[in-house]
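User: Can you fold this complex?
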Amino acid sequence: MSEPRDDAREPRLAELLRQVRREQFPPGFADRVMRSVAEGEVNRALAPALSAQFLRLAPVALALIAGLLVYNVWIAGTGRPSLDQAFGLAPVTIEEAYSLETMLRAGGPAAGDDAQ
Amino acid sequence: MTRADAANPSADDSDLALLERAREGDQRAFRSLVERYEPVVAATVTGMLGPGADAEDVGQETFVRFYRSMDRFRGDATLGTYLVRIAINLSLNALKRRTRLTRRFLSGDARAAEASSDAVGSFGRSGDPAVTHERRRRVRAAIDALDPKHRAVVVLRMMEGYSTRETAGILDVPEGTVLSRLSRAMNRLEKMLKPYVDDE
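Assistant: Here's the predicted assembly.
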């Protein structure tokens, strides 16, 4: 079949370009390809497994998030941080801090109170 | 050996047999296909990207993609052509990424200077090994200076020996587009490699 070539330059340029043609990758190429293929197969097997685990855990996680949301909304009116409420921590105020110091002084000189 | 030299009915039959076994999970059959078509893929990819780590990455990815799409290969084209099509598409993607990185770190002036720096200067006397090495470097630089679409046509048509129709089929463009890109590419190559072309 005749090739639509009307350019006499092509054969000369083609011969020049073929001088830089390379027919091989560095040695061991086939080994590297087979390793990549094997790794790809492992990843492809892993994806469904991870997906299955995610589907099992997702409802639990969503339930926890919903629970925390409800809890936060419920105690929002108290004005205290939710963690303080949850762990029964005493509120920390200036008055409480001074009260504690007073209690400690009642038992003896406070540590670090050298300025006085 | 270019693709034009590789037409061989018995090799094609053997390809189908190996492919069938590879589809059934025979790793050795797939490896045989890799070894058989490494030259074709290497020539295509290094033609597009130049030798280096990028080219090998794309070469590996070509075969990995082929492995994943083996079941979809219907035999409309030869296996070699199918692999070259994958290799060209991946090479064009790699060139786009390379261009984005280059644009980010090089100014327009620097890029133009880089592209033209090897197109001028003394070409020396042929026959001297140092001159041969320099000629190859300049030829490589001239190919690298081509637009990716023109480069693909040059690699397939001029370096790998595909016909205009085959090149158009691989690139999924009309034959007229192949010819116009080829003509523009040759204008540019001739300008950059004029002393070598005149020497031939």
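The interface with chain A takes residues 1-2, 27, 30-31, 34-35, 38-39, 42-43, 46-47, 51, 55-56, 59-61, 63-64, 67-68, 135-136, 139-140, 143, 154, 158-159, 163-164, 175, 179, 182-183, 186, 189-190, 193, 196-197, 200 of chain B (CB under 8 Å). Residues 4-10, 116-125 of chain B have pLDDT under 50 and may be disordered.
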